[in-house]
Write a structure and sequence with these properties.
The protein is of the alpha+beta class. It is about 35% helix and about 35% strand. A hairpin with a 5-residue loop joins strand 2 and strand 3. It comes from Tritrichomonas foetus. It holds the Pfam family SAS-6_N. This is Spindle assembly abnormal protein 6 N-terminal domain-containing protein.
Protein backbone atom coordinates (compact mmCIF):
# COMPACT_ATOMS: atom_id res chain seq x y z
CA UNK A 1 0.00 0.00 0.00
CA UNK A 2 1.26 3.46 -0.84
CA UNK A 3 2.07 5.73 2.08
CA UNK A 4 0.15 8.97 2.44
CA UNK A 5 1.11 11.75 4.80
CA UNK A 6 -0.83 14.76 5.97
CA UNK A 7 0.00 18.21 4.64
CA UNK A 8 -0.32 21.63 6.22
CA UNK A 9 -3.07 22.58 3.77
CA UNK A 10 -6.71 22.56 4.78
CA UNK A 11 -8.22 19.25 3.71
CA UNK A 12 -11.65 18.92 2.12
CA UNK A 13 -13.81 15.94 1.34
CA UNK A 14 -13.05 14.98 -2.29
CA UNK A 15 -16.69 13.94 -2.61
CA UNK A 16 -17.49 17.66 -2.72
CA UNK A 17 -14.85 18.68 -5.27
CA UNK A 18 -17.59 19.36 -7.80
CA UNK A 19 -19.71 21.22 -5.26
CA UNK A 20 -22.98 19.97 -3.87
CA UNK A 21 -24.14 18.62 -0.53
CA UNK A 22 -23.78 15.25 1.18
CA UNK A 23 -27.34 14.28 2.15
CA UNK A 24 -26.51 10.77 3.38
CA UNK A 25 -23.35 9.36 4.94
CA UNK A 26 -23.67 6.14 6.92
CA UNK A 27 -22.34 2.61 7.25
CA UNK A 28 -24.41 -0.27 5.90
CA UNK A 29 -23.74 -4.04 5.75
CA UNK A 30 -23.42 -5.26 2.17
CA UNK A 31 -23.07 -8.79 0.83
CA UNK A 32 -20.26 -9.10 -1.72
CA UNK A 33 -20.51 -11.44 -4.70
CA UNK A 34 -17.27 -11.47 -6.66
CA UNK A 35 -16.75 -12.41 -10.28
CA UNK A 36 -17.08 -16.20 -10.83
CA UNK A 37 -18.25 -16.66 -7.23
CA UNK A 38 -20.79 -19.49 -7.37
CA UNK A 39 -21.31 -19.87 -3.62
CA UNK A 40 -24.78 -19.03 -2.29
CA UNK A 41 -23.46 -17.55 0.97
CA UNK A 42 -21.72 -14.27 0.15
CA UNK A 43 -19.29 -12.53 2.47
CA UNK A 44 -20.75 -9.46 4.19
CA UNK A 45 -18.70 -6.35 4.87
CA UNK A 46 -19.49 -2.97 6.37
CA UNK A 47 -19.36 -0.22 3.77
CA UNK A 48 -19.99 3.50 3.92
CA UNK A 49 -22.53 4.86 1.45
CA UNK A 50 -22.56 8.56 0.63
CA UNK A 51 -25.15 10.35 -1.47
CA UNK A 52 -24.13 13.71 -2.91
CA UNK A 53 -26.49 16.12 -4.66
CA UNK A 54 -25.29 18.96 -6.88
CA UNK A 55 -28.26 21.28 -7.31
CA UNK A 56 -29.13 23.07 -10.52
CA UNK A 57 -31.83 25.67 -10.96
CA UNK A 58 -35.43 25.51 -9.69
CA UNK A 59 -34.51 22.93 -7.01
CA UNK A 60 -33.83 20.30 -9.68
CA UNK A 61 -30.56 18.37 -9.14
CA UNK A 62 -27.83 18.77 -11.70
CA UNK A 63 -26.16 15.55 -10.58
CA UNK A 64 -26.86 12.84 -8.03
CA UNK A 65 -23.89 10.69 -7.05
CA UNK A 66 -23.67 7.60 -4.88
CA UNK A 67 -20.31 6.54 -3.47
CA UNK A 68 -19.56 3.26 -1.74
CA UNK A 69 -16.33 2.92 0.23
CA UNK A 70 -14.89 0.72 2.95
CA UNK A 71 -12.76 1.85 5.90
CA UNK A 72 -11.17 -1.59 6.20
CA UNK A 73 -10.07 -1.53 2.54
CA UNK A 74 -9.10 2.01 1.56
CA UNK A 75 -8.85 1.12 -2.14
CA UNK A 76 -12.44 -0.17 -2.25
CA UNK A 77 -14.29 2.80 -3.73
CA UNK A 78 -17.11 2.61 -6.28
CA UNK A 79 -19.47 5.26 -7.58
CA UNK A 80 -22.53 5.92 -9.71
CA UNK A 81 -23.47 9.36 -11.02
CA UNK A 82 -26.76 10.43 -12.56
CA UNK A 83 -27.70 13.52 -14.50
CA UNK A 84 -31.25 14.03 -15.75
CA UNK A 85 -30.69 12.01 -18.93
CA UNK A 86 -29.03 9.15 -17.02
CA UNK A 87 -31.93 9.05 -14.59
CA UNK A 88 -34.46 8.82 -17.43
CA UNK A 89 -32.70 5.66 -18.66
CA UNK A 90 -32.66 4.23 -15.13
CA UNK A 91 -36.30 5.19 -14.67
CA UNK A 92 -37.28 3.23 -17.76
CA UNK A 93 -35.19 0.13 -17.02
CA UNK A 94 -36.17 -0.03 -13.33
CA UNK A 95 -39.82 0.96 -13.78
CA UNK A 96 -39.59 4.01 -11.51
CA UNK A 97 -42.49 6.46 -11.34
CA UNK A 98 -40.75 9.34 -9.56
CA UNK A 99 -39.23 12.56 -10.89
CA UNK A 100 -35.49 13.21 -10.93
CA UNK A 101 -35.75 15.71 -8.06
CA UNK A 102 -37.29 12.95 -5.91
CA UNK A 103 -34.53 10.45 -6.69
CA UNK A 104 -32.03 11.48 -3.94
CA UNK A 105 -34.64 11.20 -1.19
CA UNK A 106 -35.79 7.83 -2.54
CA UNK A 107 -32.23 6.51 -2.25
CA UNK A 108 -31.95 7.80 1.32
CA UNK A 109 -35.27 6.23 2.35
CA UNK A 110 -34.42 2.88 0.78
CA UNK A 111 -30.98 2.67 2.41
CA UNK A 112 -32.38 3.68 5.80
CA UNK A 113 -34.78 0.74 5.54
CA UNK A 114 -31.78 -1.56 5.18
CA UNK A 115 -30.35 -0.16 8.40
CA UNK A 116 -33.55 -0.33 10.46
CA UNK A 117 -35.01 -3.56 9.01
CA UNK A 118 -32.05 -5.86 8.21
CA UNK A 119 -34.23 -8.98 8.37
CA UNK A 120 -36.46 -7.76 5.54
CA UNK A 121 -34.01 -5.82 3.38
CA UNK A 122 -30.47 -6.46 2.17
CA UNK A 123 -27.84 -5.04 -0.16
CA UNK A 124 -25.88 -7.15 -2.64
CA UNK A 125 -22.82 -5.86 -4.46
CA UNK A 126 -22.13 -7.95 -7.56
CA UNK A 127 -18.79 -7.62 -9.32
CA UNK A 128 -19.24 -8.81 -12.88
CA UNK A 129 -15.75 -7.63 -13.85
CA UNK A 130 -13.09 -5.16 -12.75
CA UNK A 131 -14.93 -2.34 -14.50
CA UNK A 132 -18.56 -3.40 -14.09
CA UNK A 133 -20.48 -3.89 -10.83
CA UNK A 134 -24.09 -3.70 -9.68
CA UNK A 135 -25.49 -2.67 -6.32
CA UNK A 136 -28.78 -4.50 -5.77
CA UNK A 137 -31.33 -3.27 -3.23
CA UNK A 138 -33.26 -6.38 -2.25
CA UNK A 139 -36.34 -7.21 -0.19
CA UNK A 140 -37.05 -10.57 1.39
CA UNK A 141 -40.66 -11.59 0.77
CA UNK A 142 -42.31 -14.65 2.26
CA UNK A 143 -41.12 -17.07 -0.39
CA UNK A 144 -38.50 -15.21 -2.44
CA UNK A 145 -35.94 -12.43 -2.59
CA UNK A 146 -36.70 -9.63 -5.06
CA UNK A 147 -34.74 -6.67 -6.40
CA UNK A 148 -36.24 -3.27 -5.57
CA UNK A 149 -33.59 -1.31 -7.42
CA UNK A 150 -30.30 -2.04 -9.19
CA UNK A 151 -27.60 0.58 -9.77
CA UNK A 152 -24.58 0.10 -12.01
CA UNK A 153 -21.37 1.17 -10.27
CA UNK A 154 -17.87 1.70 -11.58
CA UNK A 155 -14.53 1.92 -9.76
CA UNK A 156 -13.54 5.46 -8.82
CA UNK A 157 -10.54 6.93 -10.60
CA UNK A 158 -7.08 6.33 -9.15
CA UNK A 159 -6.72 10.04 -8.41
CA UNK A 160 -10.04 10.17 -6.57
CA UNK A 161 -9.13 7.08 -4.52
CA UNK A 162 -5.82 8.69 -3.56
CA UNK A 163 -7.57 11.93 -2.56
CA UNK A 164 -10.11 9.96 -0.53
CA UNK A 165 -7.39 8.06 1.35
CA UNK A 166 -5.56 11.31 2.07
CA UNK A 167 -8.77 12.92 3.32
CA UNK A 168 -9.61 10.01 5.62
CA UNK A 169 -6.05 9.98 6.96
CA UNK A 170 -6.19 13.71 7.70
CA UNK A 171 -9.65 13.43 9.26
CA UNK A 172 -8.53 10.59 11.55
CA UNK A 173 -5.42 12.54 12.53
CA UNK A 174 -7.56 15.59 13.34
CA UNK A 175 -9.88 13.47 15.50
CA UNK A 176 -6.92 12.09 17.46
CA UNK A 177 -5.54 15.60 17.95
CA UNK A 178 -8.94 16.82 19.17
CA UNK A 179 -9.16 13.90 21.62
CA UNK A 180 -5.70 14.72 23.00
CA UNK A 181 -6.69 18.38 23.38
CA UNK A 182 -9.85 17.40 25.24
CA UNK A 183 -7.86 15.12 27.54
CA UNK A 184 -5.31 17.85 28.28
CA UNK A 185 -8.15 20.27 29.06
CA UNK A 186 -9.57 17.71 31.49
CA UNK A 187 -6.18 17.35 33.20
CA UNK A 188 -5.89 21.13 33.50
CA UNK A 189 -9.36 21.36 35.05
CA UNK A 190 -8.64 18.55 37.52
CA UNK A 191 -5.36 20.20 38.47
CA UNK A 192 -7.33 23.23 39.60
CA UNK A 193 -10.50 21.61 40.95
CA UNK A 194 -9.30 18.27 42.31
CA UNK A 195 -5.51 17.74 42.24
CA UNK A 196 -5.80 14.61 44.42
CA UNK A 197 -7.81 12.78 41.76
CA UNK A 198 -5.37 13.92 39.07
CA UNK A 199 -2.43 12.60 41.08
CA UNK A 200 -4.10 9.19 41.40
CA UNK A 201 -4.82 9.13 37.66
CA UNK A 202 -1.27 10.00 36.62
CA UNK A 203 0.45 7.65 39.09
CA UNK A 204 -1.80 4.65 38.42
CA UNK A 205 -0.04 1.87 36.53
Amino acid sequence: MSEFTATNEDFNDPSLQGGGEIIFNNEVPVAIKSENDEEEDNATILVRIKIIVVNGGDDVPQHVRLEMLCDSDLFFLYEAEYAQEDFEILKKTEGLTIKFEEFPQLLVEIIEQYITEPDSYSLLFEQQSEEQSTLRFQQQLKFKLIDILALDLKPASEEFVKDSIQYRYNAAKAEIKAAHTELNDLYALLKIKNPTVLKKMTTRK
